[in-house]
Amino acid sequence: MAPYWAKVCLLIMCFGLTLSSYAGVANAALPPPFRHRIVPKPIPRQKPSVPSIAEGAALFAESCLSCHGPRGNGEGFWILPTGTSAPRLDNLATEDWPAQKIAQVIAKGDGMMPAWGETMTPGQIQSLTLYVESLNQRTVPVPKTETPKLKPQTVLVRMSH
């Protein structure tokens, strides 16, 4: 009887090997599983802004007013850690500040002044430069900005070495 069971086991093993070989071929014939393909939408290019004093005034009110004051006179409601207020921007004409220097300070920062070059576009920096220049000229109308009614505050800066 032993040879009979040996034949049956051999037959079952051959049948199993045959099935497993067909399973491998069958899986190879199937296409790979469907994968979603995400195609990013192209980001529409923004129209380059035409530098304007009005845009500069809006940018000034949003980004500069808190330190330099509503008219650029250094009467903002933040006081620098040195205990002084931010520099006046309405007297740059008397200090020989050309537009290129103003734009450079806006873009790269200077001292306690943060750099806005990574945040603002070149057109926005030009608009802000035009507005700051308009603070120094009496002939150019300067748009009025709303000044929030806040008390002066002290900015604490932690510096690590």
TrEMBL record:
Key words, A-Z: Heme, Iron, Metal-binding, Signal
Domain of life from the UniProt record: Bacteria
The keyword Heme appears for this protein: yes
Cross-referenced PROSITE patterns: CYTC
Molecular function terms from GO: electron transfer activity; heme binding; metal ion binding
Signal peptide limits: 1-28
Residue ranges of every copy of the Cytochrome c domain listed in the record: 51-136
Alphabetized InterPro entries for the sequence: Cyt_c-like_dom (IPR009056), Cyt_c-like_dom_sf (IPR036909), Cytochrome_c-type_DH (IPR051459)
Record-linked SUPFAM superfamilies: Cytochrome c (SSF46626)
PANTHER family recorded: BLL4482 PROTEIN (PTHR35008:SF4), BLL4482 PROTEIN-RELATED (PTHR35008)
Protein's name in the database: Cytochrome c domain-containing protein
Species of origin: Sulfobacillus benefaciens
